[in-house]
Amino acid sequence: MKVVESGQDLFELMGNSYSIQQIQRQIERVAETNFTIIVQGETGTGKELIAQMIHEQSARAHKPFVAVDCGALPDSIVESELFGYVKGAFTGADGRRAGLFEMAKGGTLFLDEIGNISTSVQMKLLRSLQERSIQPLGSDSSVATDVRIIVASNAILEDEVSAGRFRADLFHRLNEFKIYLLPLRERKDDILFLADRFRRETNEELGKEVKGFSAAADAYLKSYEWLGNVRELRNVVRRAVLLSNEIIELKHVQQILNQSPKHTEMGSSLPVSKLYSGYGLHEVVHEATAHLEKALIEHVLEETKGNKTQAAKRLQIGYKTLYRKLQEYNIQT
């Protein structure tokens, strides 16, 4: 989905905090190059928006911007989606099909959650970047490519390299330039700007005239931690516009947030007592985070009736990441 329109700058979409000003300067500096870029940040911080902004400010702006969530693609089809295939490559391959590299010809290919692709696909991706060509599945010949690559990850790729889950040579090939997006809780100056932007957009969508937020609602929004980042804030504001008439009051925001699994599941079970049993903040926070993560996964699996593919999409993580966490937390499905 295209979010950035031609001529827009980052301040119109993400705010005017010092962090966003720095990112805008980085975009202006790198957009006109052909550098491969890693956009790093937590889920929901706006990594695809940054990729689109780079594309729109580059010489490739008149060519396609193609985005794919690598975490949402099963291992069995990642290679054919990226590189395409020829007739007879596998059962059901009845003809030639272009992959995403070819669809993005002359433009930008955005690979979200790059850390979720298998090591075999990582190797083929590395070769494609080095040789500026791809080899469709089942073909003996190569196809030249002209595409700018931007990748994103909510995991720290250096850590993934150290853990042996991501190839070091591919990381270094991708890491020509890096942009790091701070989580929303670390750029609170943008919260009210974003909330008002989402209010206006939702008003237009619903045909409503909600005029703004009460002072108490503003203060609550700004003090909240927003673990789901901009995506969570947007969802809360959209629901608040739906629930309210003229002004979004504190009660509307609290009603929505108090229905969240992280409130209903976690509130009474934080391991606060461990602070008085010799454990430090790091250990207590780690346990609380794990408890919350497990509760959220169980909640979504229950909602999707055990469908792990749907659960991974709803949680906005890769299928492999979900599978690893199911094992880690011993969650039965």
UniProtKB/TrEMBL annotation:
<dbReference type="InterPro" id="IPR003593">
    <property type="entry name" value="AAA+_ATPase"/>
</dbReference>
<dbReference type="Pfam" id="PF25601">
    <property type="entry name" value="AAA_lid_14"/>
</dbReference>
<dbReference type="InterPro" id="IPR027417">
    <property type="entry name" value="P-loop_NTPase"/>
</dbReference>
<dbReference type="InterPro" id="IPR002197">
    <property type="entry name" value="HTH_Fis"/>
</dbReference>
<keyword id="KW-0805">Transcription regulation</keyword>
<dbReference type="GO" id="GO:0005524">
    <property type="term" value="F:ATP binding"/>
</dbReference>
<dbReference type="InterPro" id="IPR058031">
    <property type="entry name" value="AAA_lid_NorR"/>
</dbReference>
<dbReference type="GO" id="GO:0043565">
    <property type="term" value="F:sequence-specific DNA binding"/>
</dbReference>
<dbReference type="Pfam" id="PF00158">
    <property type="entry name" value="Sigma54_activat"/>
</dbReference>
<dbReference type="GO" id="GO:0006355">
    <property type="term" value="P:regulation of DNA-templated transcription"/>
</dbReference>
<protein>
    <recommendedName>
        <fullName>Sigma-54 factor interaction domain-containing protein</fullName>
    </recommendedName>
</protein>
<dbReference type="InterPro" id="IPR025662">
    <property type="entry name" value="Sigma_54_int_dom_ATP-bd_1"/>
</dbReference>
<dbReference type="InterPro" id="IPR009057">
    <property type="entry name" value="Homeodomain-like_sf"/>
</dbReference>
<dbReference type="InterPro" id="IPR002078">
    <property type="entry name" value="Sigma_54_int"/>
</dbReference>
<keyword id="KW-0547">Nucleotide-binding</keyword>
<feature type="domain" description="Sigma-54 factor interaction">
    <location>
        <begin position="13"/>
        <end position="242"/>
    </location>
</feature>
<keyword id="KW-0804">Transcription</keyword>
<dbReference type="Pfam" id="PF02954">
    <property type="entry name" value="HTH_8"/>
</dbReference>
<keyword id="KW-0067">ATP-binding</keyword>
